[in-house]
Input
Amino acid sequence: MTDMRKRLETLAGLPDSQIDVAEAALIIAQEEYPALNIGSYLARLDDLAAAAKARIPSDLPVEEKIDKLNHFLFSERGFAGNQKDYYDPRNSFLNDVLDRRTGIPITLSVVYCELAGRLDMDVRGVSFPGHFLVRHVREPEVIIDPFFGTTISQEECARRLEAIYGRSVPLDDRLMEPATPRQILVRILNNLKQIYKERDDFLRALRFAEQILILTPDAPREILERGLLYQRLECFASALRDIERYLELAPNDKTASMIRDALPELRRQAALLH
Output
């Protein structure tokens, strides 16, 4: 096991409240950039926060603090959503996001929350359907969309839900609940896994599937996903182990019957190469 995987395992063993999201996101990036210096990028976040703090008086109302942080990060420093190449994997690596000042909603949200936290602002990431957001969780509530660099209203959130579902959907409070550090990291990893699957780069996709299972070791669907990636890579014995484990954990899952029907052929392939 690499040092990177060992560090991720150590973090995964912590309670969610003790997981440092920025550090873990940079550990994830080490899968692609083995020489990445995590300390230097954490220091860059510290420097960004210090520069922001110099522009944001501590006694301002929350709304004004957020307006000034938005101006600093999005106008002055130029962080923005990558609308031209949303599925560029660099948008999901925190080091690249800090270097290039561009990303996708979840990684820009990580940057935003890291800065806000260093400024003693209780801002958390929100796994809103279709588009990750951040929210000031105490009164007054303020919702920020770091991808577009702006605050948005609850009415705008409701309109976005309607656009996703094609009908009016109540803005349930549960949709605005803060995501846990583990959920944020798994979402970043899932993005990377899906990007590389779409590119038929199954080896890279497998690496990120393995990291997801470090964070959520008994998630049946993730075990199945890894098994299917092993199968695509013709690692049939490993695929069989994962797929049998998935069926043990989730025998009544909606895809379990189809997967079970395919087991005899997978067992034959595994036996031939054993």
Remarks:
- The first strand starts at residue 80 and ends at 81.
- The two ends are 23 Å apart (CA to CA).
- The mean pLDDT is 94.
